[in-house]
Hints:
By secondary structure, chain A is mainly alpha-helical.
Amino acid sequence: MKKRFALPLIIAGILSAASAVAADDPYAKLKQNFQQLPAIPPIPANNTQTPEKVELGKMLYFDARLSQDGTIACATCHNPALGFTDRIPRAIGHGAQRGPRNSPTTLNAAFLSSQFWDGRAPDLETQALGPIQAGIEHGTTLDKAVATLKSFPEYQKRFADVFGGKDPVTAENLAKAIAAFERTLITPNSPFDRYLAGDEQAVTTQQKRGMKAFVEKGCAGCHSGPSFTNGGFFKIQVPGSTDEGRYTVTKKEEDKHAFRVQTLRNVALTYPYFNNGSVDKLDEAVKIMGREMLKTELTKQEVADLVAFLHSLTGEMPKFNYPVLP
Amino acid sequence: MKKRFALPLIIAGILSAASAVAADDPYAKLKQNFQQLPAIPPIPANNTQTPEKVELGKMLYFDARLSQDGTIACATCHNPALGFTDRIPRAIGHGAQRGPRNSPTTLNAAFLSSQFWDGRAPDLETQALGPIQAGIEHGTTLDKAVATLKSFPEYQKRFADVFGGKDPVTAENLAKAIAAFERTLITPNSPFDRYLAGDEQAVTTQQKRGMKAFVEKGCAGCHSGPSFTNGGFFKIQVPGSTDEGRYTVTKKEEDKHAFRVQTLRNVALTYPYFNNGSVDKLDEAVKIMGREMLKTELTKQEVADLVAFLHSLTGEMPKFNYPVLP
């Protein structure tokens, strides 16, 4: 039996079978709508990424002394244990005050074309200084934050080593270091990325059906590109929200209640959803998106398939040791 | 030159030189007052330490959902980035309320004979449930905390795998898992431990002088054993404190304003000091201890030597990856 065919014939047979499978695969063409998450996000020309800067940025990301009462760090609301978000509807900051919006994840934020729900910061460097100064977040000033850092000889040395210059402990360099750390918070190797890379077993049939629905229903129109957002701003009305969104930045009537398209990378980990965190469950969020953005009442099966697909976008969490702060 | 002495003579010479050094070493005998930190702390017979339990305990240690508003975890006040404490005078918990006492470190707490400043918990298991129920800390109830855990299928599965039984998600098992994780928070390999193990270069001459002062001035009387505390309770009056300490537990007059002798392991990282966190600097804390407990005004040199010695008690921080919580 084993010697019935000559080897070249067997190989030819295998190859033709493989081609046949590809041709029959109803999902093969759909895949072309998607892109893998790159291992490295865009890096600005004026903020080179060095291991020492990343390490310093990690320390600062975890340093609660950059707040008025010493209890709020970046990691408080963008908590590594909770998908780099806080899993509560709206952020709770200085003095237990509750902010107006849900904390977005820091994971893959480096790929976004703007930061904050309303896109008011063009990059991670600008974003980093926002919460420090926000009364309901860190509740301090940049001058105080810089003075705090200067009070630690270890920070003085690290800033000098990383940035050089006569007075290296500045708000600008603080922002650069935090941004450099955040550019390492990338989540590669999700089941869907492995599927795009050729591994047919990496996702389930239901997840493939969800991918199909994602394209055919129109989700992929805005949730496109490697981080599943085209960076655009669109009006959306979610339960309980009166937030004027992008309008607060542009003061243009057409931006009222518009928010930037959110990344869907790791969306299974970044609940609750929407600008006010009003929706706890992913299936409910998918239904609302269908209704609000696609003017479609998705079927139960479509919702289940889409949710399964969205779960395939959970990548590997960044691994790093805790910093030991001075 | 090389062949001037026969080999046995050279060896004899080396041995006698080594003995001479040991005999001349004024610190050799002082070392006998100290013990290295064991790699493994005492483990209670009814809470066996398994990797799965430790992993579950780590998740629970970081899980802020075990609090009323979802923002306070064990790791909030016992923060791994800040020496497993919070580096503020008195803990800030639920609703930004400030507690009455300084957060003690979780590092090496497994070696202590009682927990909390007033020793009201006999072990880590009992300790773990205190802050969850304290109105000014996690601000919730054990029933609510258990209900929260039960709402996550992943926690249900992990508790079942670790503890078995019909209803494994209980407050008792929650406490056991957290305690098991905390028993891994040991800091071996401090310079002083390496010195005790024979490495003469591991500490400086000033640190050896500090060790000498530590014994001769009397600090070692109470700060004894591998974790530098004999577990006793002693009256102490630190700046600004009206705290009745151990009295609140025993209601015995002699326990008024008494607190358990604190561990000095990693004391350079666990500032600010004392029950109300009123002292920020280690040299000031040493001076106060001299005055309050030893009735001695330590000289500037003694204080400097003691502080140098205390820095030699900083061990290696535990290394672990962040949990990814459900």
